Amino acid sequence: MPIRPPAAPDQPNPSRRQWLGHGAGLCLALSLCPAAAVSEVPSLQAMVNQWAGGRPVQAGRITLQVPELVEKNGNAVPLSVRVPEPGPGLHVQEIVVYNERNPQREVLRCSFGPLCPRAEAATRIRLATSQRLVALARLSDGSQWQHAVEVVVTLAACVES
Amino acid sequence: MTADQPTTRPTLPHPVRALVALPAVPPRDTPFEVRTTLGHPMENGLRHDGHGNVVPRMLVTRFEARLDGALVFAADLYPAISANPYLSFWLQVAGPATLTLDWTGDWGFAHRETRQLQPT
Amino acid sequence: MRRRACRSAFRWAALWALAMPLVAAAEANTAAVQNPQTRTTPADTRRSGLLDMGPALQALQRDDAQNPAMLMVQDGAALWARRSGTADRACADCHGPAQAPLAAMDGVAARYPAIDAASGQPLNLAGRIRQCRRQHQQAPDWPADSPELLALSAYIGLASRGLPITPPEHPRLAALQQQGARLWQQRLGQLNLSCAQCHDRLAGQRLAGAVIPQGHPTGYPIYRLEWQGLGSLQRRLRACLVGVRAEPFAPDDPQWLALEAYLAKRAAGMPVETPAVRP
Predict the structure, then answer these.
(1) A-chain residues within 8 Å CB-CB of B86?
(2) pTM above 0.90, yes or no
(3) What is the number of CB-based contacts under 8 A between chain A and chain C?
(4) Which long-range contacts (C-beta less than 8 Å, at least 24 apart) are formed by B50-53?
(5) Distance between CA C9 and CA C106 in Å, rounded?
(6) Measured between CB atoms, which of A72, A75, A78 is closest to C228?
(7) ipTM of the modeled complex
(8) pLDDT tens track for B30-86
(9) Chain B CB contacts of A114 below 8 Å
(10) How far apart are alpha carbons C189 and C63 in whole angstroms?
């Protein structure tokens, strides 16, 4: 007895097909409509460009000091920024530090008043993973300077649950 | 992308503790370092507790150091700053002065430390 | 194309084989230079986990102005002076005023775990504090790893900083230490590893980029960077058990104290570092 191919399936109920169509359309519409609270995290370069405001940023004058290899986890990485010599008659308006791969790009922003003898600050930061850090300084003559460091973060061997 | 602040207010640290390290007798007309550590969890709002609930965001967002009221050093802090935030900066004084350190942050957090500076 | 890829793969493999011994040697050299061993006697090869950390973290622990645990020590000093419970008594009322360092508790933390003379039961420092709180202050108990208990433990522990760990002589304690020694050698968990395998035999070598410490309890309670806060030895041991994928003991299981007692004996003579910083 030859094996007969299975009978063609019944046409789906027209109302069920309409249902499926509406459902698919709804999903498509929802996926295209952006959720109110979600925004794209800018890239590191975009943050630097935004800070620079279209003006050039040169390498130098500012030093970002952070260990290039972070043992164990990145929970308390010492970081310091300094502009030892802004230049004759110049002072530092602000220093900012941005990261590449944390959930948020900003790390620190500091400003120094006229009584502050040194444009230098230190802190401890969290690094989610190995990434690039950039420190930027703007001087009172409008010049902008940067220093970038690549940091490698290893993970603890035994991860606590 | 920072986490939205929840509607229920988390418990702020209390009492607030801060470590402020500076020379007992600062040198006159010479820069000296001030090192501060504030007891604060710096919750970034992205962690989860053991039950899978998000630990609400609670950050210190601003630090200001003033000498006799004049702003000397200010910093904006972001979630990348470690818990129990450490900040160090430099000061120079020509005579006795009052140093006030102010930390402010989410949920109305505010803490002030005051030190009387008596240089050599 | 495939032959070219094969040849270049060979080249990389050869380079790797040549480079690995050089990398290992360089690493060993750096480790030796950066982490000098401290020995109490020429034959004593014990070293604290402090020396397995990099210079920045060592500096963090050694500098009281930067060590985040000192915030909790301040809390402990405040708790020491605070009246509590229906007896309305502060630690200071019996043990003397809060001081920096606390002279009244000089050497105390270095002698725990110990056997309580009254009950004959083993106690660690946290257990003693809780017992005092219940009996003499008649105050509600502080649960294990509560911030108050940790702060007070850190404050009292600091008073023993620099002193050698000195487990007391007591037959019951000796039995507990032996039980702990057996646990130390016992394979546990899905990874089927014993503490001894990593922390005795392989200490100093690397596991996933991190130096394996010998695991001495010299600095508890510690400020652990992974916790972003202070924690007890029991919490750290619990993390170890989870790390080998073992079911951690129940919170009041006597095996915790057995391990603590053995670890103290194993570290006898090494200086207390409380409050330490660990990654």
Answers:
(1) 122-124
(2) no
(3) 51
(4) none
(5) 63
(6) A75
(7) 0.89
(8) 999 999 999 999 998 888 877 888 888 999 999 999 999 999 999 999 999 999 999
(9) 70
(10) 38
